[in-house]
Amino acid sequence: MNSKKRKLIYNAVTFGIVILAFLLCNIFYSDMSRSLRGQLIPICCWIVMAVSLNLVIGISGELSLGHAGFMSIGAFSGIVVSGWLLNGFQMENEILRLIIAIAAGAVIAGIAGVLIGIPVLRLRGDYLAIVTLAFGEIIRNVLNCVYVSADGASLNFGFIDPNLPGTLLLNGPNGAVGVKKIATFTAGFILIIITLIVVLNLINSRTGRAIMATRDNRIAAESVGINVTKYKMIAFVTSAALAGMAGALYGLNYSTLVPAKFKFDQSINVLVFVVLGGIGNTLGSIISATVLTILPELLRSFSNYRMLIYAVLLILMMLLTNTPAAKAFFINLQGHWKKKALRKSIEAEQGKGGTQS
Amino acid sequence: MTVRIQKRNQDTKMVPVPSESIIPERDLGKLPVLECKHLGIDFGGLTAVEDFNLTIGKTEIAGLIGPNGAGKTTVFNLLTKVYEPTRGTVMINGIDTHGMDIVQASKLGIARTFQNIRLFSKMSVEDNVRIGLHNQIKYNMFSGILRLPSYWKREKQQHEKALELLSIFGMQDMADMQAGSLPYGAQRRLEIVRALATNPSLLLLDEPAAGMNPHETQELMDNIIKIRDQFQIAVLLIEHDMNLVMGICEGICVLNYGKIIAKGTAEDIQSNPVVIEAYLGKQKEAQA
C-alpha cells in the first residue's frame, strides 16, 4: 500500500520529531538561556493552536479568524477552575489540578465552538471568515465584563458588576491576577502528543475523509450522503476544544493574564503559522509555530529593528515556499513517488487498451 | 422564452404521449424504483421543467435525451433533491421525497454522477470510493480517534469493498493514485464506482460517455449492462451519444423545452417526427 505507507511514514516522522525535540530540550535544559526556557511552554501552546487551526483551514477548508477567542475561553476557564479547586477544595496536587483545568478548558471551549458553529457554519468562504473574526472579538469583549469569584466551594459569577463575595478569580478587564503557575513543559509536550493523536487519527478515519470530501467538493459529498454541516461542525468543535486546551495551559503559565492578550492579531498570528507551514500540513504547522515563536525572542538583541526583521523574514519564507524555482526543488524531492505512480497509471491504461482523450 | 415554450406546448398537445411507463410490457416489480408525477419547477418566471411523468422499474435502463438546454440536468437535480420541485411528486422506492434534502435522497437509494466531473481530486482513488461507502460501512468518530478494534475491522471492510467495486472497471491497480491525475475516461469511471458504493437502487448517469472515444464508449455500454445485472439496479442516463442511448436503453424519454415530447423504445424514438423536428428543426424551415 503506497499511499497508506506514505501516511504512516509522515505520521511517524511527525511524532518522532516532536519526541526528539522534547528529549533534546530536556537534555540541554541547563544550557538554554533564560528567555528561551520561558518560551518552551508558550511554544507548546502555539503548536497546539496551529495544529488545531490547521484542522479547520487545511482539512475542512474554512477560513476561521477567531481562533484566539477559543484560546481565551480555554485560558480563563482553566484559570477559574484551577483557582476554584485551590480555594474551594484545598486541592494542593498541582498535576491533578492542571489536568482538570485543561479538561475544563477543552470542554468549555468546545461548548463555545458548538454555540458559535451553529450560526457560523451556515455561511461559506469570506463571509464565514468575517463572522468568525467578529465572534473572536465578541468573546474578548464579553470576557472584559465577566467577574468570577470563589467563595468557599461555590463559584459566583457577575456580569459588569464586580461586587462578589470571596476571592476574585477573574476581574473583568484586569483579567486574572495572582494565578498560581502550575503549567509544566512536560504537560505541554503531552498536550502536543494528544493533539497530534486526535488530529492525525481523525484525518485518517471515516470522519476525516468525510470532512475532506466536504472541502474538496461540497455537492459531490452531499450526493454520496455526507451531511456537510455535521462534518464541518465536527472539525470546528474539535479544533475549538484543542484550542481551549492550549489556552488553559497558556493561562496557567503566567501569574497575570488579561483578555486583551487574545486580540485579533493573535488569531492572525496562528493563521501565519498555518499558512507558512503549509495549509493541511501538520508537521509544517509544528515547525513554523516553533520557529516563529522563537524568532521574535532571538531578534530581541536588535530591539529597534526586531519587528522589521521579523516581517522581512516572513516575506522571504513565503517567497521561498511559493516561487516556481523553490517549488520545483521540492517537487524533485517527491519526484520518485510521482514517477512511480505515473508509470503505474500508464501501464494500467495500456493494459485496458484505452487511450486518453 | 416563455412565449416560445407556450407555443411548443401547443404543438406537443397534438402528440399522444404513450403511457406513464416507458416500456409498459416490462414487469417493473411490485414497486417502481422511481415514479415522477407531474413534476415541474419554475425559476423566477421561467418554467424549466413542466409536467414530467416518468416511471422506472427495477433493473430498467432508461435514457433521457433532448437538445441542449432542454432541462435534462434540471430533471436530475430535481430527482436528487438539489432543487425542490415547484409542482408534482418524486417517489423513490415508493417513498415520497417531498421536503427531503440531498443527503436523505441519497440514503433512499439514489446515486448520481455529474456532467462536469466532481471527484475529490486531491484524494486517492481508493479514498474516493471509501467516501462513497460512508453510509454503508460505519464506525463512529471516537473509535476512529482512539483506534478501537471496530476501526480496524471496518477500515479493512472498506478497503476490501472499495477494491471489489474498483475491479468492476478494472481499476484496482490505480487505487493508490491521486484521483485528479487520472485520465479523463478513468475519472468518469471512478465517478460511477463512487456512486455505486452508496448502494443505490437507482443510478443517474449524466453524460457518462462525454469525451470518450468509440472504443471506450463500447466498453462503457458493456459495463453499464454488467452493473445493472450484477447490482440489480435501475439506471437513468443522459447522453448525447446516440449509439450508446439506442444501444442499451430499453426505454427512451425525449425532453424539449422542459416537456416530454416523446417516450418509447429506440425504434419508436428514431422514427418519431416530433423528435426529429426537435433535433433538426421543421422541414419547412429547413427548405426555406
Structure, explained:
The complex is a heterodimer of chains A (357) and B (288). Chain A is mostly helical. Chain A has helices at residues 2-27, 34-59, 67-89, 94-120, 125-143, 185-203, 206-216, 218-223, 228-251, 264-277, 282-298, 306-322, 324-352, and strands spanning 146-151, 154-159, 167-171. Chain A has a three-stranded antiparallel beta sheet with strand order 2-1-3, covered by helices on one side. Chain A is globular, with a radius of gyration of 22 Å. Chain A starts with a helix and ends in a 5-residue tail after the last helix. Chain B is an alpha/beta fold and 288 residues long. In chain B, the strands form two sheets. Chain B has a six-stranded mixed beta sheet, sandwiched between helices. Chain B has a four-stranded antiparallel beta sheet with strand order 2-1-4-5, covered by helices on one side. The longest helix of chain B has 18 residues, at 149-166. Chain B is globular. The chains are: A mainly alpha (357), B alpha/beta (288). At the A-B interface, helix 6, helix 7, helix 8 and helix 13 of A face helix 3, helix 4, helix 5, helix 6 and helix 7 of B.
Q: What are the segments of chain A in which pLDDT stays under 50 over at least 5 consecutive residues?
A: 353-357
Number of strands of chain A: 3
> What's the story with the biggest beta sheet of chain A?
3 strands, antiparallel
User: What's the helical proportion of residues of chain B?
Assistant: 40-55%
Topology:
The complex is a heterodimer of chains A (about 350) and B (about 290).
Chain A lengths: L1 H26 L6 H26 L7 H23 L4 H27 L4 H19 L2 E6 L2 E6 L7 E5 L13 H19 L2 H11 L1 H6 L4 H24 L12 H14 L4 H17 L7 H17 L1 H29 L5
Antiparallel strand pairs in A: 1-2, 1-3
Helix pairs in contact in A: 1-6, 2-6, 2-9, 2-10, 2-11, 3-4, 3-5, 3-9, 4-9, 6-9, 7-9, 10-11
Chain B lengths: L1 H12 L20 E10 L2 E11 L4 E5 L6 H8 L7 E6 L2 E2 L5 H7 L1 E3 L12 H8 L8 H5 L3 H18 L17 H14 L4 E5 L7 H18 L2 E5 L3 H7 L2 E6 L2 E6 L1 H6 L1 H8 L2 H5 L1
Parallel strand pairs in B: 3-8, 3-9, 6-7, 7-8
Antiparallel strand pairs in B: 1-2, 1-4, 4-5, 9-10
Helix pairs in contact in B: 4-6, 4-7, 6-7
